[in-house]
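C-alpha cells for chain A. Residues wanted.
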C-alpha cells in the first residue's frame, strides 16, 4: 500500500505542476481565470506527502531587470561588437584590394561588374546564417549592403561601362526588387520590404538616359505601386504606402519638370488619375488594425487621402492652367474634374463605411476625412471659373470640417492639418486675393472675411470645452487673429467706400475743383479712427461681460493705438470739424472705460487685496 500511496502523491504533484503551467499560459493569452490551487507564477517544487489543498497560492512577483554584470558586458562586446567591427574591417580591406586591382588594371570592366554581382549575392546569402542564429537585425543590415551592391553593379554595367542595354539592366533590377519582396514576405520583415521599395523607385533614376519615356516610366511606377499595395493587403505594413506615395510623387514631378509638354496632356492626365485611383482605394483593401506606434485612428488612412487629393488636383491644375488658348475651356474642365473628384470621394466614403468588422474609430475618422475632401472639391468646383477667391473659401471650409472631425474622433493629428488649411486660407485672403468691390459690405471680400472670422470664433468658443492645456496659447492666437481680421475687413470697407468717391471725383474734377477731394480724404482718415475706437469700445464691453482679462487687454491695446493716431496723425491731417469729433469721441470712450474701472465692476480691487493678504500671511 505504501507504494500505491507514493505513486498517488507523485501523480498529484505532476497534476499541480501541469495546472500551474496551464494557468500561466492562460494569463499570457489574456484569458481571465481564477488561480488554481497550487498555481504560482514560478513553478515550485511540490512536496510529496503534502495534500494539494494545503499548497498556498503565491502572488505573482514583479520581474525586476537585474543589472548587467561585467561578465555579461564582456560577453556582449566579444560576441557582438567585435564581430561587427571585424566584418566591417574585412569589407574595408576587400574594398581597398578591389580598388587597387581596378587602378592597376588587373580586372577589366566586365570583371568588376561580375565581382560586384557575386559579392552582392554572396552577402545576401551569408546574411541568412546570422538570421538563423537569432541576429535578425544584423542579418538585415548585411542584406541592405548586398542588395545595394547589386543595384549599383547593374547601374555601373549600364551607365558607366555600357556593357548591357537599358532593357537588360532594367529587367535585372526588377528581378532584384522582386526577390527582395519575396524575402520580405517569407521572413515577415518589413525592413526588407522597405529596401525593395527604395530600390524599386531608384531603378528609373539609376537607369535614366536623359530621354523621355513617359509610358514606360509611369507604367513601371503603377506596377510598383500595385505590388506594394498587394503586399500591404496581406501584411500590416501601412507605412510602406506613405513611402510609395512619396516615391511616386518624386518621379512624377521630376519627369514633369523636365519633359512635360502640352501635346502630352491627355496621356499625362490619364496616368495622374491612375496614380490617384491606386492610392484612393487604399482604405478599401488594407487591413484596418490600429497602429502599434500611436493610439487612435490611423495616420496613414487619414493622411494619404488628403495628400492624394491635393496631388491629383495640383497635377490637373498645372497641366490645364498653363493653357492660355482658351481660358473658359480650362476653367470649365477644371470645374468638371473637381466635381468628379468630389463625387468619387463621396462614393469612396460610402463604400468604406460599409466595411464589416472594422475598428469604429478608424472607420469614423477616415470616412469623415473623405467627406471633408469632397466638400472642399465641391466648394472649389462650382464657382471656379468665376473667381479664384473660392479656393480661399474652400481652404477655410475644409479647415472647419477637419477641426470638426478631429473633435468628434479625438484625432489630435487632424488638428494640425486643419491649422495648415486655415493658415493657407488666411494667408491667401490677406496677401493674394484681389477683389473688385462695388457695394459696401455686400461683396465677396467681406463675405470671405466673415467666413474666416466665423471659423476663428468657433475655434475660440469650442476651445474652452475641447482644447487641452497645451493648446491654450493657440486659442489666444486665434482670438487675436479674429480681432485683427475683423478690423482689417472693416477698414478695407471704409477705404474702398471713400476710394469709389475719389474715383467719382476724378470723373468731374474739371468742374468740382479740389475742395471735395480734400473733404473725402478727411472723412476717410476720420472713419479709420472711428472704426478702431468703436471696435475697441465694443471689445472692452465684451471683456467686461465675459469677465475676460485677455479680451480687455486687447481692447486696451487697440484703444492705445487709436490714441496715438488721434494725437499724432489726426491733429495735423484732419479738418477742424473731424479733429473735434475725434477728440470728443476718444474722450467719451476713455471716460466710459474709466468709469467702469472706478466702480470696480469686476471686483479687481478685492482680488488684489486678497492676494496681498495671502502673500503677507505666508
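Reply:
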Amino acid at each position: 500500500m505504501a507504494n500505491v500511496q507514493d505513486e498517488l502523491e507523485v501523480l498529484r504533484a505532476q497534476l499541480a505542476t501541469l495546472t500551474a503551467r496551464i494557468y500561466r499560459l492562460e494569463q499570457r493569452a489574456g484569458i481571465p481565470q481564477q488561480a488554481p490551487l497550487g498555481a504560482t507564477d514560478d513553478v515550485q517544487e511540490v512536496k510529496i506527502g503534502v495534500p494539494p489543498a494545503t499548497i498556498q497560492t503565491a502572488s505573482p512577483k514583479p520581474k525586476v531587470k537585474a543589472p548587467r554584470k561585467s561578465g555579461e558586458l564582456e560577453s556582449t562586446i566579444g560576441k557582438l561588437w567585435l564581430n561587427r567591427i571585424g566584418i566591417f574591417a574585412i569589407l574595408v580591406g576587400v574594398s581597398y584590394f578591389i580598388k587597387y586591382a581596378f587602378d592597376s588594371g588587373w580586372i577589366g570592366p566586365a570583371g568588376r561588374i561580375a565581382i560586384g554581382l557575386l559579392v552582392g549575392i554572396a552577402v545576401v546569402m551569408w546574411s541568412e546564417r546570422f538570421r538563423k542564429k537569432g541576429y535578425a537585425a544584423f542579418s538585415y543590415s548585411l542584406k541592405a549592403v548586398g542588395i545595394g551592391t547589386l543595384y549599383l553593379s547593374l547601374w555601373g554595367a549600364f551607365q558607366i561601362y555600357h556593357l548591357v542595354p537599358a532593357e537588360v539592366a532594367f529587367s535585372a533590377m526588377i528581378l532584384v526588387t522582386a526577390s527582395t519582396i519575396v524575402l520580405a514576405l517569407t521572413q515577415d520583415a518589413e525592413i526588407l520590404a522597405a529596401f525593395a521599395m527604395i530600390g524599386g523607385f531608384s531603378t528609373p533614376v539609376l537607369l535614366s538616359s536623359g530621354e523621355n519615356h513617359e509610358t514606360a516610366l509611369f507604367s513601371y511606377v503603377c506596377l510598383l505601386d500595385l505590388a506594394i499595395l498587394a503586399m500591404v493587403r496581406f501584411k500590416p505594413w501601412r507605412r510602406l504606402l506613405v513611402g510609395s506615395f512619396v516615391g511616386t510623387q518624386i518621379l512624377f514631378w521630376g519627369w514633369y519638370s523636365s519633359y512635360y509638354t502640352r501635346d502630352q496632356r491627355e496621356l499625362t492626365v490619364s496616368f495622374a488619375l491612375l496614380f490617384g485611383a491606386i492610392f484612393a482605394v487604399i482604405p478599401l483593401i488594407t487591413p484596418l488594425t490600429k497602429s502599434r506606434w500611436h493610439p487612435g485612428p490611423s495616420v496613414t488612412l487619414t493622411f494619404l487621402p488628403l495628400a492624394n487629393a491635393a496631388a491629383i488636383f495640383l497635377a490637373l491644375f498645372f497641366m490645364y492652367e498653363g493653357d492660355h488658348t482658351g481660358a473658359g475651356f480650362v476653367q470649365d474642365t477644371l470645374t468638371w474634374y473637381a466635381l468628379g473628384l468630389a463625387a468619387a470621394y463621396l462614393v469612396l466614403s460610402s463604400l468604406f463605411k460599409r466595411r464589416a468588422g472594422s475598428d469604429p474609430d478608424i472607420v469614423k475618422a477616415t470616412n469623415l476625412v473623405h467627406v471633408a475632401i469632397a466638400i472642399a472639391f465641391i466648394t472649389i468646383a462650382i464657382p471656379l471659373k468665376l473667381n479664384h477667391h473660392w479656393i480661399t473659401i474652400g481652404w477655410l471650409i475644409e479647415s472647419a470640417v477637419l477641426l470638426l472631425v478631429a473633435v468628434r474622433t479625438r484625432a489630435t493629428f487632424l488638428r494640425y492639418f486643419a491649422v495648415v488649411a486655415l493658415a493657407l486660407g488666411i494667408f491667401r485672403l490677406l496677401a493674394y486675393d484681389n477683389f473688385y468691390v462695388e457695394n459696401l459690405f455686400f461683396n465677396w471680400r467681406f463675405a470671405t472675411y466673415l467666413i474666416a472670422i466665423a471659423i476663428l470664433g468657433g475655434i475660440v468658443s469650442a476651445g474652452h470645452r475641447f482644447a487641452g492645456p497645451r493648446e491654450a496659447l493657440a486659442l489666444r492666437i486665434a482670438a487675436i487673429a479674429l480681432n485683427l481680421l475683423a478690423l482689417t475687413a472693416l477698414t478695407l470697407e471704409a477705404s474702398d467706400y471713400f476710394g469709389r468717391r475719389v474715383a467719382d471725383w476724378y470723373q468731374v474734377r474739371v468742374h468740382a475743383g479740389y475742395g471735395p477731394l480734400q473733404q473725402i480724404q478727411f472723412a476717410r482718415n476720420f472713419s479709420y479712427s472711428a472704426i478702431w475706437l468703436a471696435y475697441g469700445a465694443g471689445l472692452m464691453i465684451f471683456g467686461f461681460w465675459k469677465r475676460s482679462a485677455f479680451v480687455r487687454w486687447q481692447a486696451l491695446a487697440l484703444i492705445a493705438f487709436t490714441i496715438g493716431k488721434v494725437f499724432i496723425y489726426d491733429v495735423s491731417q484732419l479738418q477742424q470739424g473731424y479733429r473735434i469729433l475725434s477728440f470728443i469721441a476718444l474722450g467719451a470712450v476713455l471716460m466710459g472705460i474709466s468709469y467702469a474701472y472706478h466702480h470696480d465692476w469686476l471686483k479687481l480691487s478685492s482680488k488684489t487685496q486678497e492676494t496681498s493678504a495671502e502673500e503677507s500671511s505666508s
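DSSP finds 22 helices and no strands in the chain. Residues 35-65, 608-618 have pLDDT under 50 and may be disordered.
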